[in-house]
């Protein structure tokens, strides 16, 4: 894997190689720079990751800041809490979807939803009041 990643970090790596690596192995988010940040990475392909069967690959769709709300809803319904948390942090999420994620049984998802700036201030004030803060 490290040889493939090193080769992919070359400035002349073709876009199709980057896509193949990500579809086959996902992204290692603690290794920078990310493959999706490679200058040759076809950013328009990110939306296609929503349909990937492997959730570690599917999460890459959330790297698209303009991911449509319909796709965010699909990801918010996923079993994996890291996908739901990614939706809760997404800049294109709606207040309505954040409301649903605030009730998520996974605390990290609810915390990320509460921290998203898309959540209306009045709703955040109610959350704080209910918590006695």
Mean residue pLDDT: 90
Total number of strands: 0
What's the overall geometry? elongated
Distance between the termini: 48 Å
Provide the succession of SSEs: HHHHHHHH
Question: Are there runs of 5+ residues with pLDDT below 50, and where?
Answer: none
Number of helices: 8
Strand fraction equals under 5%
The biggest beta sheet reads:
none
Please identify the structural class as seen in this structure. Answer: mainly alpha
Helix content class: 40-55%
Number of domains: 2
The rounded Rg comes to: 17 Å
> Which oligomeric form is depicted?
single chain
Write up what this structure looks like.
It is a single chain. The protein has 133 residues and is mainly α. The protein has two domains: 1-41, no CATH class; 54-133, no CATH class. The chain has eight helices and no strands. The chain has helices at residues 2-8, 15-25, 55-58, 69-76, 81-89, 95-102, 107-115, 121-130. The longest helix is centred in the N-terminal third of the chain and has 11 residues, at 15-25. The protein is elongated, with a radius of gyration of 17 Å. The N and C termini lie far apart (48 Å). 21% of the residues are buried.
Strand and helix map with partners:
Layout lengths: L1 H7 L6 H11 L29 H4 L10 H8 L4 H9 L5 H8 L4 H9 L5 H10 L3
Helix pairs in contact: 4-5, 5-7, 6-7
């Amino acid at each position: 894997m490290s040889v493939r990643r090193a080769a992919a970090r070359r400035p002349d790596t073709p876009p199709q190689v980057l896509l193949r690596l990500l579809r086959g192995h996902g992204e290692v988010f603690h290794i920078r720079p990310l493959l999706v940040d490679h200058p040759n990475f076809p950013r328009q392909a990110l939306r296609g990751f929503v349909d990937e069967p492997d959730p570690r690959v599917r999460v890459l769709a959330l790297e698209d800041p303009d991911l449509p709300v319909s796709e965010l809803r699909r990801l918010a319904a996923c079993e994996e809490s890291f996908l739901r948390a990614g939706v809760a942090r997404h800049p294109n999420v709606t207040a309505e979807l954040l409301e649903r994620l605030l009730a998520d049984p996974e605390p990290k998802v609810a915390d990320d939803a509460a921290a998203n700036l898309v959540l209306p201030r009045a709703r955040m004030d109610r959350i704080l009041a209910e918590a006695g803060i």
